[in-house]
Amino acid sequence: MLDTGLDRASRAGGVLRDRVVTSLFAASALRYHPPPLASCGACDVAGREKRRRIGFSGSFVGMSLRPVDAPVTALTTLREHTLPDGREILLLGTAHVSKQSVADVARAVEELAPDQIAVELCEARYRNLTDREAWRRLDIFKVLREGKAPLLLSSLVMTSFQRRIAKELGVVPGAEMLEAIERAKEKDLSLELIDRDIQVTLRRTWGRLGWWGKLKLMSQLVGSLFVGQEIDEEMVEKLKQEEELAGLLEAMAAALPQVKSTLIDERDRYMAQRLRQTTGRRVLAVIGAGHLAGIARHLDEESDLAPLEQVPPRSWVPRLIAWAIPVAIVALLVVGFLRGGVEESITSIVLWVLVNGVCAALGALAAFGHPLTVAAAFVAAPITSLNPLIAAGWVAGLVQAWIHRPTVSDLEDLPEDITTLKGFWGNSVSRILLVVVLANLGSMLGTFIAGGWIAARTL
After folding, report:
1. CA distance 176 to 163
2. I want to staple 138 with a disulfide (CB 3.0 to 4.6 A). Which of 36, 156, 270, 283 is the partner?
3. Mean pLDDT, range 70-83, rounded to an integer
């Protein structure tokens, strides 16, 4: 049977549909650009209240983004919409790792002659997309002290999927957004950042997921590291088509409806309202193709942005569990002492130290931590498991960072290294983050194993 382009595109759709949460979460839906600085500190909340209009002064991207080999095709993902006041909104759907999308943006600006350009970015993502030196300013010790290592590691895992595709296709991730930004600068057009703040989106998504949903999402993210299917330009362009996107979104809704609600549906409403608030008479909006239908559907509706920018309060249940576990362990030790005397208590304490310490040490070892890091995880786990205010992974991560302090070269190479498993485990920065996460997971596992063992012996 002939291997047609349609066959290959169909297989690509199957591959991405099997990992629909990962692909949409990491690339198409969020159009995520890893924000090492925004991820490690509070975002400017006041900035969300002002208009996201960017002026240009000076240069920001020293690279050519216009692919010379992109074929000239019709703008098939363009939708024109006229608002009740007569203003025109031109929605251009793009793919984040598509040369054709870069060419489409350049062509749309020239042929449609907009007087304002809007892009699917928030302020934090705009800064990180246009500031290629951001990685060099990453303070890994600050990340560890603030407990943000899991968040940054998740960011790296999410973006590694799209970076691998971009590398295969020979395109810069986010190139179509950069093209829109550069074109706005060249033509002296105002630029609107219409997307919701990335921190709000991620926190609303995470807050709505239950324990099972969070586990499914994390498994999808980890699984994305092992995706081996090659995807070519023809497949990417096929996935921009409405019927393919509809299938992906339906699969996403079936797998994790809360994720689709916050990542797609809410942002469709948000960006539609932001477009309604623009001042141009003819506005070109460069957005992900996955948002095209949703934004068009909401353009005639007035939406209140305030509820969409609220971050749900943290649940008290995890904090209760975090304190209940050490209280239960101490209670078991006391009961063991009362029933079996000192010898029983010593046996239970030894079990607690060995099981918890070994599990945390194995986690640090799995991250290829330094021997001193592994030892630190072993020593810290039995203690920190009884104190919810500190974690074994934090201690192990600080030791790893102290022994192998990341260099400027490590920070510069990080975006490239995360595209392979070898690079992910080899780069000093990502290895520190892996030490933190895996040592913490090991300590958690050890806590439940040791706690159950002690309970079985005591009760």
Report:
1. 14
2. 36
3. 75
Find which of 35-39, 72-76, 289-293 is predicted with most confidence, using mean pLDDT: 289-293
Angle between helix 408-417 and helix 149-169 axes, rounded to 10 deg = 60
**CB-CB contact of 100 with 233 (8 Å):** yes
Which residue shows structure tokens 């974690």?
391
Question: If pLDDT is split at 50, 70 and 90, which confidence band does 97 have?
Answer: low
Structure confidence at residue 407 (pLDDT): 74
pLDDT at 364: 96
Pairing between β-strand 116-119 and β-strand 88-94 as defined by DSSP bridges: unpaired
d(CA 365, CA 441): 12
pLDDT for 266: 94
Average pLDDT, the chain: 76
Q: Cβ–Cβ contacts within 10 Å for residue 293, how many?
A: 17
The pLDDT of residue 11: 41
Instruction: Give how far the C-alpha of residue 102 lies from the chain's centroid of Cα atoms, to the nearest Å.
Output: 23
Q: If phi over 0 gives left and psi between -120 and 50 gives alpha, with beta otherwise, what is residue 86?
A: left
Per-residue pLDDT, 114: 96
Q: And the tokens for 266?
A: 């809410």
Rounded to two decimals, the pTM is 0.68
Kindly give the pairing relationship between strand 190-193 and strand 78-82.
unpaired
Location of structure tokens 């039995």 = 382
Q: Are 289 and 28 in contact (CB under 8 A)?
A: yes
CA distance 305 to 331: 49
Angstrom distances, CA of residue 227 to CA of 19, 29, 173, 219, 278: 9, 19, 18, 13, 40
